[in-house]
Write a structure and sequence with these properties.
By secondary structure, the chain is mainly alpha-helical. It is built from seven helices and no strands. Helix 2 packs antiparallel against helix 3 and helix 6 packs antiparallel against helix 7. It starts with 67 loop residues before the first helix and ends with a helix.
């Protein structure tokens, strides 16, 4: 299971138009005959050949499995670290050019820590919590900046993030969205295109070609781009939910719950930042 976000690679989707889960058994609750309920692809990454003498070489892990409680606890720790970092940064760093520079530095450090974790084969709680702390500092500073100009924007952004997350979870649990390999490929292609366009737009803004932020302006075009970004965040949440569900169903090791928390945190941060921009845009138009 890999963290779900617009930057990092993912583990679990096969090229055979199906979802390669954590074992070769059908996923619980899926209809009989559903081509995505079977996982006849790669070896189970969580299998142990020596679980017990005489066991099949791809037998699932029978001890120390990840549970929903593990995911909830790790996610609470990670998101709590983000929240503490944000509150401290808001309280201790006044709005100024220096605090803005510190926010950019914290964001870069958080990005580096996230990249290091993404290339590791096993989750590192220290890296994940370190990422969360520096991400929190970044969010605290920019939230204070937005609040100084658009009073109440951070609170509205938090409510918006909760609303998007809750609605996405309800839609996913209701079965209205089926996370398949085709669904993931299409969504990832759109996300990568979005990131490329955003990077090009940033370069154009830096070199003075695009004025007022270009595609990321605080106008109607910026609002459309922000809505697309939030929809992409909801897409990545569905992949997070699917990977957590499969990790529990197919016996992923308990420490994989840290990756689940890492992925959820990155996605929620993405949605919050975009929601913060969107609230500011709509507030400016009043």
């Amino acid at each position: 299971m890999r963290s779900s976000n617009p930057v990092f690679s993912r583990r679990g989707f096969s090229r055979d138009n199906g979802y390669a889960g954590f074992n070769t058994a059908p996923q619980a609750g899926y209809a009989q005959g559903d081509p995505y309920a079977q996982n006849p692809y790669a070896q189970n990454p969580y299998a142990q050949a020596d679980v017990q003498q005489g066991a099949p070489p791809h037998a699932p892990v029978t001890t120390d499995r990840m549970t929903m409680d593990d995911v909830v606890v790790r996610s609470a720790l990670t998101l709590g670290t983000v929240a503490v970092g944000a509150v401290l940064a808001w309280a201790l760093l006044p709005v100024s050019g220096t605090s803005y520079g510190l926010a950019v530095g914290a964001a870069l450090i958080a990005f580096v820590l996230a990249m290091v974790q993404s290339f590791k084969r096993t989750p590192s709680p220290a890296l994940i919590l370190g990422y969360a702390a520096f991400e929190g500092v970044f969010l605290g500073v920019i939230s204070e900046m937005f609040n100084s100009r658009w009073s109440g924007a951070p609170f509205q952004a938090v409510l918006g993030t909760m609303a998007v997350s809750g609605a996405t979870l309800l839609v996913y649990k209701a079965g209205w969205i089926r996370v398949t390999a085709r669904y993931a490929r299409i969504g990832m292609a759109i996300a990568m295109a979005f990131l490329v366009v955003t990077a090009v737009n940033l370069l154009l803004v830096v070199f003075g070609v695009a004025e007022n932020g270009g595609l990321r302006s605080f106008g109607p075009l910026g609002a459309i781009v922000g809505i697309i970004a939030i929809l992409l965040g909801a897409f990545f949440l569905t992949l997070d939910f699917k990977q957590i569900e499969d990790g529990i169903a197919y016996g992923a090791p308990r420490n994989e719950s840290w990756l689940a928390a890492f992925g959820l945190t990155m996605t929620l941060v993405w949605i919050y930042v975009e929601m913060l921009r969107l609230v500011a845009i709509f507030s400016s138009s009043d």
